[in-house]
Structure formats: structure tokens, C-alpha cells
Design brief:
Blueprint lengths: L1 E2 L3 E4 L6 H6 L10 E2 L11 H4 L6 E6 L2 H13 L4 H5 L9 H12 L8 H4 L6 H12 L20 H10 L3 H4 L6 H11 L4 E4 L3 H7 L8 H10 L18 H10 L1 H7 L5
Parallel strand pairs: 2-4, 4-5
Antiparallel strand pairs: 1-2, 1-3
Length: 267
């Protein structure tokens, strides 16, 4: 996250946050401080926590259909936390491997995930769709509590992360939700966000909210003109290359909260 005297910027994975965070860091008058990356508000340094109510909090959002392709394609580059946590095939030569097999059977997960095959080709829509179904149908444990949460039956990984990062006490709250309506109600009454930056319009939205974060628009425009549009981006085709009707509807169902709230469409 980025902390300044006037705002806190939170970084939701694969929403253009690497590019976005570099912009305020170049405005010296803000006295910005980078504190980790992708961390939640509860991880603020102790001396900074009492300042939270007085600061504007904002973060990024992205079309969910595009988000999943970006997340998967980043893994195809052997990068990202999800790629590292995605379960490998079982090693049957060890007792640990056999115990893991029994756990996966018990928890209704795939025994052999074929991880390297799933992440082999960033242009392959079939592997993407297979990966997407594994993630959203909860067929693998991803190491961040998503599969184990009751709400994962109704919301996708993107909404799960969104609620953890962008709502008050989100880390604990996501483990208590039973229904999509529970999640919606919590987001409505406990959102941390004053505004959001759309991945599709990062520069425009930053300029629109320049005064909110106490940045002179002319100075911000100069920084934007000199900045590269994308950093830390994944190599892949346009997201519509990867979907069929079944996978389109799967994302529409599991990311309904974000799709409805931000009026995203598949196009």
C-alpha cells in the first residue's frame, strides 16, 4: 500500500496497481511511503492505524472476465502468488504425498492438477478454461482460505479478495459470510473506498480524482505523460479469446457483486 498525509492506496492484485502505485510515489510533496504490497488495511504499521479515519482510501478495480485471464497468464510466466500456491501433482514416493492424496479425496479436490500443463501456454483458451473451472468450482486449495470459506460457494476469487482488501475487517468477515447477500450487505455498509480507479481508464480516473488526493492536476498530467502505460503485465491475447458460453456464465455468476456494482459487461 501507499500511505501519504492525505490518502491510503490499497493494491488489489492484477488490477493495474503496479502502474498506479508508481504515480503518487513520484509526487514528492505528498511524502508518500510504500508499505509492502497487496497488504490489507489491518497490516498498517501500528503508529499509522489511528490516522486511517482522516485519510481518503482508494484502490483499483477491473473487468472480472479480463481479471481472470490476466491472473492465469501471469502464472504462465511462472509469476505471482497464486501460481506459487497452486497445488502440484502428488509425489507418491513419500508418505507426505499419500497423505496429501487422501486429503484431496476427502475435500473433493483434483488429485492430479497438471499444474505445469495448465500454465504452459498463455495463448491456449482450453487450458485457461480448465484452470478457471478448477479455481471457481473449488477443486483445489489455493492457500488463502478461499476454498475453505462458506462464501466461496457463491462468490469468485476476485470478489473474495476484493472483500478482504476493500472492506472493514474484511479478512475476518469473509470467513463469516453465508450468502451473497451477506457479502453485499457488508460491502455496502463497510466499504473502505472513497473512490476506485478502473484498470481500463487508469490515467483518466487518476486525473479525475487528483484533487481528492491533494495532487495538482498539471503536475499529475506531466507524470502520467512520462510514465509507461503498463508494468508487470502478462503476455496474452484479448480476454474474449479465452472464453466460451459456459465459462462466461461461470464468471458472471461468481463475480456478480463486482459486475453489478461497477456495471461491467462481457464484450
Amino acid at each position: 500500500m501507499i500511505i501519504s498525509e492525505s490518502f491510503i492506496y490499497l493494491e488489489l492484485h492484477k488490477t493495474g496497481c503496479t502502474y498506479t502505485r508508481d504515480i503518487p510515489l513520484q509526487v514528492k510533496a505528498l511524502n508518500p511511503i510504500a508499505v509492502g504490497k497487496h497488504n490489507v488495511i489491518e497490516e498498517l504499521p501500528g503508529e499509522k492505524k489511528h490516522e486511517t479515519p482522516s485519510k481518503i482510501i482508494f484502490g483499483n478495480i477491473r473487468n472480472p472476465w479480463d481479471w481472470y485471464v490476466s491472473l492465469w497468464a501471469f502464472g504462465c510466466m511462472k509469476k505471482g502468488g497464486l501460481y506459487k500456491k497452486f497445488p502440484d501433482n502428488i509425489d507418491y514416493s513419500s508418505l507426505t504425498g499419500w497423505k496429501e492424496m487422501l486429503r484431496r479425496i476427502r475435500d473433493n479436490e483434483l488429485i492430479n492438477t497438471q499444474k505445469e500443463k495448465l500454465y504452459a501456454k498463455a495463448a491456449d483458451p482450453e487450458e485457461f478454461k480448465t484452470w478457471l473451472k478448477i479455481v471457481l468450482n473449488r477443486k483445489a486449495s489455493l492457500g488463502e482460505g478461499y476454498k475453505q470459506s462458506e462464501i466461496s460457494k457463491e462468490v469468485g476469487l476476485m470478489t473474495y479478495r476484493y472483500l478482504k482488501m476493500y472492506t472493514k475487517n474484511g479478512v475476518k468477515a469473509v470467513q463469516k459470510f453465508k450468502t451473497l447477500q451477506d457479502a453485499k450487505d457488508h460491502d455496502f455498509t463497510n466499504t473502505l473506498l472513497k473512490f476506485t480507479i478502473r484498470n481500463e481508464n487508469i490515467n483518466e480516473d487518476l486525473l479525475k480524482h487528483a484533487l481528492d488526493i491533494h495532487v495538482d492536476q498539471s503536475e499529475l498530467l506531466k507524470i502520467l505523460d512520462e510514465s509507461k502505460k503498463r508494468t508487470n503485465s502478462s503476455k496474452r491475447k484479448k480476454y474474449t479469446h479465452y472464453y466460451d458460453e459456459e465459462s462466461i456464465e461461470l464468471v458472471r455468476k461468481k463475480e456478480k457483486l463486482i459486475i453489478d456494482k461497477y456495471n461491467y459487461t462481457y464484450d
